[in-house]
Design a protein that fits this description.
heterodimer, A: 359 residues, mainly beta, Lipocalin, 2 domains, 6-stranded mixed beta sheet, 3 helices, 11% helix, globular, disordered N terminus, B: 395 residues, Immunoglobulin-like, 5-stranded antiparallel beta sheet, 6 helices, 25 strands, 34% strand
Chain lengths: 359, 395
């Protein structure tokens, strides 16, 4: 009898965190109908956000991976794309790693993967634990919620609608999920802000992003990647200026214009960004297609006081940055701990997961 | 490109105790048998495929009732399925999947369907498999692939041979679904035999339609916009008066992992920049008469975006109901032709255009690609106008 009681108590304790989580986040058990696992981000309590361009939706998935760990970790996986491909019974040529994100609670790494490159490619999410052991995050009977991100595209009944709104990046910030998207038809860039936990209405704040050129004109411009820093969104445009937008400006139906705070050089596509603190100084780290990872000193004061780059300039301008030349071919970047970053690096056909100390 | 024959290699063949087959299996095997081989004696490997999994079944084992008591982790030690390791490749982790033991066989069912262009290797551990004495490995070479017809490029829009210097995008239409992930390596902009460096907007999420039959290529907007650094440094990707070729590589794989096989090219000459928005007051409309299926034609003052002409233009009758019909886009996207499914009824009709419709350089009906700077325009009525209406009478 005593033993029985003890067992019951343990069960209750084990069940409690997820019960609380469910009440908090509106997640319900089921199997999400994800068609494409694209951009990833983490919401609180180990909830993984998955962007699905094909379904025009964001999924919030309870990974159950909510045990906090602290301290330095080392996560290195050579040929992670080949390893994942082998586990899926396929080869690296038929495997695409779309994004990666670290669960800030546990330090585990999550990878969104397409098995295949065709329209029927299977979406798969892999987890690498702190020792680098890979496993699939099963999406069967998992707690999740879903929010639609696109306005219903204009279309006529019975006609095929090829319009898609690609999700280019996604971040969680203080009860909101900010989503950057670009249509494959009209040229417009939208930042959408969804309240999290998702309320089921799919109602999103939609902001038209304009980019002021150096002079008198401005254009709608697509955000390639972004991060949040204090009360601003730091967005890298496809033409590599770094722009700050106050979070408060993200109001429904608004047209907003970012302030260009840095020019990061030309013939260059920004790929991923993280913000971190070293000592008392904040930094931004950005991977890009053309050169080593870029590092930028960041402070709210500097963002506010830097003169917006609105005149023709030579070389780079705005906030100064340095290029870390030894970090090459970094396609994905995330913070692993307070002192480390984890990167996905292209290494002659192979992709490696590597941990570095934050520079 | 792909091996079409089935071949079988037995690295080590071992004679195992033969036992009589047990009574029929109570769990029906699913899928189609695509491969059977005798490993040795009574031991046999059967591979069955279904649309979502491959089942590797070892038949002829002794003591299956003992195996039925084992945990999946133990069964995994006994039998594993891997992708055959290539020279200098990393260690191959076993396939994800589930194990089961029936009255007739030990089964491994893969989490994903098998990839027919891959060699798989099945390993049995002699110390764990009842009756086996030595390590056994069976390689199942590439399975016969269903050959699909070669994919081709059906069209590249815009279709005109003369295009503005600040052209914003191309649409490439394919006859079948293409592969994702290497688009920007497979499309080239060429002038005088030399490739233009970084002319396109490259996105991690490639801009395909859902079927992956249409690819949207944006010209790098930073190199079109005046005053932006990429354009200041490198100029516009295209220059007025010059001739260019948009080339689609023959090595681009379709979704069935077959290369296009042919190189596809669109040649064009570049005109000066277009900074003018489409002007609906200049458009001409040719109207049909009632009780016919004559086409309705709207002719524009310039070429418009092909995809949007197919999606954001419609015809409504006097009651506001959408008239059904076929859309044809003609004359280098300067003409929108509508063929109704049923006879026209007489009376007032309207052609409705979304104001988001763009010309070839991204100017739409309410704003040019490059607008004059202005402060917040929340609530600007011009911006909130999402449609324009062109009324016509069907006599």
């Amino acid at each position: 009898m005593l033993r029985h009681k003890l067992a019951l108590t343990l069960t209750l304790c084990a069940a409690m965190p997820s019960a609380i989580l469910q009440a908090d986040s509106g997640l319900k058990e089921g199997t999400p109908d994800i068609k494409h696992a694209g951009p990833l981000a983490f919401a609180p309590h180990g909830v993984l956000l998955v962007g699905d361009t094909l379904n025009a939706a964001i999924y919030a998935i309870d990974t159950g991976d909510d045990q906090a760990t602290t301290g330095a970790k080392t996560l290195n996986i050579e040929g992670v794309n080949q390893k994942i491909a082998a586990m899926m019974g396929s080869d690296a040529a038929e495997t695409v790693i779309n994004d990666m994100a670290v669960n800030p609670l546990s330090g585990s790494l999550y990878l969104s993967v397409s098995r295949g490159r065709g329209p029927d490619a299977a979406p798969v999410i892999f987890k690498a634990d702190s020792k680098g052991a890979l496993s699939e995050l099963s999406l069967k009977k998992i707690k999740f919620s879903k929010a639609a991100i696109a306005n219903a595209p204009e279309s006529q009944e019975g006609r095929r609608n090829p319009r898609m709104s690609a999700i280019t990046d996604m971040q969680y910030k203080d009860g909101n999920v900010v989503v950057a998207g670009l249509s494959n038809e009209e040229f417009a860039s939208k930042l959408r802000v969804l309240k999290y936990p998702f309320d089921g209405t799919g109602k999103a704040t939609s902001v038209e992003m304009y980019h002021g050129a150096h002079g008198k004109t401005e254009t709608a411009s697509p955000v390639r990647t972004f991060t949040t820093y204090e009360d601003t969104v730091l967005a890298a445009y496809t033409c590599t200026p770094l722009v700050s937008i106050p979070v408060d400006d993200l109001k429904d139906g608004a047209k907003t214009k970012g302030k260009t705070i840095a020019e990061l050089g030309n013939m260059n596509q920004p790929l991923d960004m993280i913000v971190y603190k070293k000592g008392s100084q904040d930094f931004l780290l950005m991977s890009n297609s053309a050169r080593g990872v870029m590092k930028l000193k960041l402070s709210k004061g500097d963002i506010n006081s830097t003169k917006a780059i609105d005149a023709r300039i030579d070389g780079t301008a705005g906030l100064p940055f340095e290029t870390l030349k030894d970090l090459k071919d970094v396609v994905q970047l995330d913070k692993l701990s307070e002192t480390q970053a984890v990167m996905l690096v292209n290494n002659s056909g192979r992709q490696d997961v590597r941990t570095i100390d934050l520079p | 490109m792909c091996k079409l024959n089935i071949s079988l290699h037995l690295f080590i063949v071992v004679v195992l105790h033969s036992i009589a087959l047990r009574a029929d299996d109570d769990t029906k095997p699913t899928g189609t048998v695509s491969f059977i081989t005798n490993i040795s004696g009574s031991l046999r490997l059967e591979l069955r495929e279904s649309t979502d999994s491959g089942t590797f079944a070892i038949q002829g084992l002794t003591k299956l009732s003992l195996l039925q008591k084992l945990q999946p982790a133990d069964l995994r030690k006994m039998m594993s399925v891997r992708v055959l390791r290539q020279d200098n490749a990393i260690e191959m982790l076993p396939l994800l999947g589930t194990y089961s033991v029936t009255d007739t066989e030990l089964r491994f069912s893969s989490r994903f369907p098998l990839n027919r262009s891959i060699d798989y290797q099945v390993e049995l551990d002699p110390y764990l498999v009842p009756g086996a004495h030595e390590k056994t490995e069976v390689v199942i070479a590439k399975l016969p692939k269903k050959r699909s017809p070669t994919t081709s490029v059906l069209a590249i829009y815009p279709t005109a041979d003369l295009l503005p210097e600040n052209l914003l995008k191309f649409y490439i239409h394919f006859s079948a679904s293409m592969s994702r992930g290497e688009a920007y390596k497979r499309i080239h902009l060429i002038h005088a035999g030399a490739e233009i460096e970084s002319p396109f907007l490259e996105l991690g999420e490639e801009l395909w339609d859902a079927e992956q039959k249409r690819f949207t290529v944006f010209i790098h907007p930073g190199r079109i916009k005046k005053g932006l650094k990429p354009r200041e440094d490198s100029g516009t990707p295209m220059t007025e008066g010059r001739e260019y070729t948009l080339r689609v590589d023959k090595d681009w794989m379709d979704a069935a992992q077959q290369v296009l096989g042919n190189t596809w090219e669109k040649k064009f000459r570049v005109l000066g920049p277009d900074s003018k928005q489409p002007d609906p007051s200049q458009w001409k409309i040719t109207t049909p008469i009632a009780k016919t299926v004559q086409p309705l034609t709207v002719s524009f003052d310039e070429s418009l975006d092909h995809a949007m002409l197919e999606r954001v233009v419609s015809v409504r009758d006097a009651s506001g109901k959408t008239v059904t019909g076929e859309i044809l886009i003609a004359e280098n996207e300067t003409q929108w032709v509508f063929q109704p499914t049923e006879l026209w009824e007489s009376g007032k009709h309207t052609v409705v255009f979304s104001t988001a419709i763009e010309d070839l350089v991204g100017n739409n009906l309410i704003r040019p690609f490059e607008t004059l700077e202005q402060e917040t325009v929340v609530g600007n009525p011009a911006v909130s106008a999402t449609e324009i209406f062109i009324a016509f009478d069907v006599p």
